[in-house]
């Protein structure tokens, strides 16, 4: 059914992923009339494609070490409220692991695996049980401030256009990774043809709408979360996003076409993924030995995921690769694949001068000889990899209460942001996706409901979808 033109709601939430559904359900539970608008034909966003790991930094010191340029005030609030939100997920009845997974993303994070897809359905049910609506196939064309301090949200569906009035808006549209235009504007060092490892609907609607209302930006908009995947790769469909991710890359070395390394690999695959995006051609070969392939290369990246041979899957999908009993033999094969074999020989002997193909070498920690010690036992393997983008890390500037901030740092009354639409929490260094989405969604939903109910907007006027 179509949205009713001219209808009034206490809270309008844009985006139907974890952050949006959590914000909408929390606002409805607080007594606000709520409508959630999702432009795709189904709810869930990229959260529904994830492994379901509810994790972040265990403490502020760990966060600062991993994300030194991050918003520490925002991080302090999210870390403080982590256990409360985890308890809410457990109370919903979905399966949550009893024991935590330690060392998420290397030796850093702490979290719990949970049934995220079932939980998304529970949040939708809670919203509807409280009289709220969740509408799919709705594109938001614009938001305007009205003379009485409220918002006019202009929408379009297959059935036509409608304008909604509201006192509070929560932006949770999932980042701008699916927009080539916004990527070109905000991350020019990243190649235009980077592989999308995400839902296709996160095209920066939240960022566009927020800035149209005067919001400022936070974090480095040139940074993003994702994982290395094979190159070339066929059949890169959502059900294979995690299967093709080379989570174990921190246990090998990465060499560009000139035979040189461009980063210290031990920092983690999600960091290396960003570094490779700023190497000419956006491809490199990941070199590792048999011990790595038989352990880290087949291990579970997350609890309950299952063991798979990632090298074997990549080869079957068409990735360029090489296998040899000795490093010398591997070098010769890579030479035939276009790598500078003479320089690669020097690299393996200890030359750590960064690749001249890297456009922003200063971002990466310089390579060290220590990582070369991981190439110990043959046979040896090489897999060509490329970066993939899951969601952007820079975005809308918010305060710890998730209020959007204008370019001078002042709150924009009634405008909130959550999930991957915000900037500042993750910032090249990565401290989680689902947990920050849920946490900011919780905060934004409560704040938006308080703002709307405090403004005495009244009940909604019978809009349905």
Count of discrete alpha- or pi-helical segments spanning 4 or more residues: 13
Q: Biggest sheet, in brief?
A: 8 strands, mixed
**CATH architecture name of the largest domain:** 3-Layer(bba) Sandwich
Unreliable sequence segments: none
The named CATH superfamily of the largest domain = FAD/NAD(P)-binding domain
Describe the structure.
This protein is an alpha+beta fold and 465 residues long. It has two domains: 8-222 and 390-454, FAD/NAD(P)-binding domain, CATH 3.50.50; 227-386, Flavocytochrome C3, Chain A, domain 1, CATH 3.90.700. The chain is built from 13 helices and 22 strands. It has helices spanning 18-29, 60-66, 72-80, 82-91, 116-129, 180-186, 205-212, 269-276, 290-294, 310-316, 327-336, 341-348, 434-454, and strands at residues 8-14, 34-38, 53-56, 101-104, 109-113, 133-136, 139-145, 151-157, 160-171, 195-196, 217-218, 224-225, 229-230, 253-255, 284-289, 321-324, 380-386, 388-389, 391-392, 395-396, 403-405, 411-417. The strands form six sheets. Strands 1, 2, 6, 7, 8, 9, 21 and 22 form an eight-stranded mixed beta sheet that branches. Strands 13, 14, 15, 16 and 17 form a five-stranded antiparallel beta sheet that branches. It has a three-stranded antiparallel beta sheet with strand order 3-5-4. α1 (18-29) packs parallel to α13. The chain is elongated. The chain starts with 7 loop residues before the first strand and ends in an 11-residue tail after the last helix.
